[in-house]
Amino acid sequence: MATVAEQWVLVEMVQALYEAPAYHLILEGILILWIIRLLFSKTYKLQERSDLTVKEKEELIEEWQPEPLVPPVSKDHPALNYNIVSGPPSHNIVVNGKECINFASFNFLGLLDNPRLKAAALASLKKYGVGTCGPRGFYGTFDVHLDLEDRLAKFMKTEEAIIYSYGFATIASAIPAYSKRGDIVFVDKAACFAIQKGLQASRSDIKLFNHNDMDDLERLLKEQEIEDQKNPRKARVTRRFIVVEGLYMNTGTICPLPELIDDIDLISANMENSLASIGGFCCGRSFVIDHQRLSGQGYCFSASLPPLLAAAAIEALNIMEENPGIFAVLKEKCKRIHKALQGISGLKVVGESISPAFHLQLEESTGCRERDVKLLQEIVTQCMDRGIALTQARYLEKEEKYLPPPSIRVVVTVEQTEEELEKAATTISKVAQTVLL
Amino acid sequence: MGRGCGFLETGGVEGSAAPQAGRASEAGRMNVGVAHSEVNPNTRVMNSRGIWLAYIILVGLLHVVLLSIPFFSIPVVWTLTNVIHNLAMYVFLHTVKGTPFETPDQGKARLLTHWEQMDYGLQFTSSRKFLSISPIVLYLLASFYTKYDAAHFLINTASLLSVLLPKLPQFHGVRLFGINKY
């Protein structure tokens, strides 16, 4: 390396080219051929490896028989024989023209028919109109939405809350907003369908543990720890989540939260049941909830909640805050009917004694799910004839991961009197005896 | 108001300019600060308008800066240009993984380098060809200007190989010895 700049003469350079070593020139020739090859190569997509030859693919296509667009379905499919409700599904519900006591709608606090809620919704309707015609980010945010989010955050004693316009979409949007491909989610086997869809949309690794079995969860966590030690670099970029339901809809049981964890990052709930509104919300620390404002698919891309429903939800929160005694009343009623329904021959009560929505399952299954469903449907129909409106818990049987056994879902509300609870218990008892013999 | 009048008057001009505007608005425009439906904008960066020219100017700038250092001879400068260019290309295209922003595809590209993300994995697109050919051109120039010296040959060839091999379609997603896998 000369300190003085060498004289750069073109002739000298070309002379060096003539005296260049052969290996170098050969390499340069190969590189120029490579450039030509690159310039003439066509763009193509990298094929996913498929082990079928073209011939096998043709054979499979020949063999395929199209299924009918509308598959044949039995005449007594529940979707074809639905009950028609006239009027609101409140405490006294008119089903198929017959008046019954409502033990089927999730109207836990009886706020569905509450005059205060109706007045608040009407006032909001007169002020804002019916809908919002836009998502939250596109002129769909009204002051009632911000008010409701504020009130929910205060009620749940968290920093911030976010509202979705559809209860199912709430948790199904919240989970994929945080958990992505390569992340791990530990979830209970009895999680409801909305959670299952959220997990499916997240494309993460799902590890299921037995329902309410903390030891099973610990086993899974320990296995994961061993995996992490084998590959610490992968562990550093993997996020982990635990998803549990507070009160499981499919089993009526409560998750053992104190054993599980000290600090919860996100609470998600449905406003379509107790709050007698529509939609759902998530609440937690601002740092966590704010992320959903841009990443929650249901929040960004669905129209926002109609203001009249938001006003109704705010009024429902008012009622709940003014009158916190109704929760104790509801718990009492739950315990009462839970006790009264014990000992029915043929049916067993599944769920906590304080759970307002629990299941009645057949003590001994007939072995075939269809027959079980038919038996339970017979019980439900006969109860309805005697003035007690019940329903079976329905599932998309082919889509559920762990399909729960068929059951009748009984809902307890604050509006049911003690006589009505007694009447329901005795009616179910008698009907079960006649149907199940 | 002035714009409204202007529209009427320049209607004819706009009409004739429309087809050109249509062509120009296709791929090649940088979607900075506008709403777009591109799932992973990283895939389209190297197709943006003017980026090839910017790349060439940047390499030229590197070369000029190296030339301005008084105690580097011409062969050293060219070898350094080649090596620094290849090193930067290796780091930015073949080492750094994922995206600096959240993508709506649930993190499909989290473990992919920028080269693997380009054009969603489509091989031999024009940007990929440009980025494969530019280190080779730089190598040919460096070989000429170092007068085919053996020591420079070794350094330049090793550097070129390190940047050509990851670009082969056979190396898509390959992580040797688990390096840079997660």
From TrEMBL, chain A:
This enzyme's EC code(s): 2.3.1.50
Keyword Membrane: yes
Entry's Gene Ontology BP terms: ceramide biosynthetic process; sphingosine biosynthetic process
Recorded catalytic activity of this chain's protein: dodecanoyl-CoA + L-serine + H(+) = 3-oxotetradecasphinganine + CO2 + CoA; L-serine + hexadecanoyl-CoA + H(+) = 3-oxosphinganine + CO2 + CoA; tetradecanoyl-CoA + L-serine + H(+) = 3-oxohexadecasphinganine + CO2 + CoA; octadecanoyl-CoA + L-serine + H(+) = 3-oxoeicosasphinganine + CO2 + CoA
Membrane-spanning residues: 20-40, 161-179
GO annotation, cellular component aspect: endoplasmic reticulum; membrane
Domain of life: Eukaryota
Metabolic or biological pathway: Sphingolipid metabolism; Lipid metabolism; sphingolipid metabolism
Keywords: Acyltransferase, Lipid metabolism, Membrane, Pyridoxal phosphate, Sphingolipid metabolism, Transferase, Transmembrane, Transmembrane helix
Protein name (Swiss-Prot/TrEMBL): Serine palmitoyltransferase 1
Organism: Physeter macrocephalus
Gene giving rise to this polypeptide: SPTLC1
Automatic annotation (TrEMBL), chain B:
GO BP: any one term: regulation of ceramide biosynthetic process
InterPro entries cross-referenced by the UniProt entry: ORMDL
A GO term from the CC aspect: endoplasmic reticulum membrane
Residues spanning the membrane: 52-78
Main location (coarse class): membrane
Protein keywords: Membrane, Transmembrane, Transmembrane helix
Pfam families: ORMDL (PF04061)
Subcellular location: Membrane
Coiled-coil portions: none
UniProt topology in membrane: Multi-pass membrane protein
Family named by the database record: Belongs to the ORM family.
Record note on quaternary structure: Ceramide-sensitive subunit of the serine palmitoyltransferase (SPT) complex, which is also composed of SPTLC1, SPTLC2/3 and SPTSSA/B.
Chain's role: Plays an essential role in the homeostatic regulation of sphingolipid de novo biosynthesis by modulating the activity of the serine palmitoyltransferase (SPT) in response to ceramide levels. When complexed to SPT, the binding of ceramides to its N-terminus stabilizes a conformation that block SPT substrate entry, hence preventing SPT catalytic activity. Through this mechanism, maintains ceramide levels at sufficient concentrations for the production of complex sphingolipids, but which prevents the accumulation of ceramides to levels that trigger apoptosis.
Protein name: ORM1-like protein 2 isoform X1
Organism for this UniProt entry: Physeter macrocephalus (Sperm whale)
This protein's encoding gene: ORMDL2
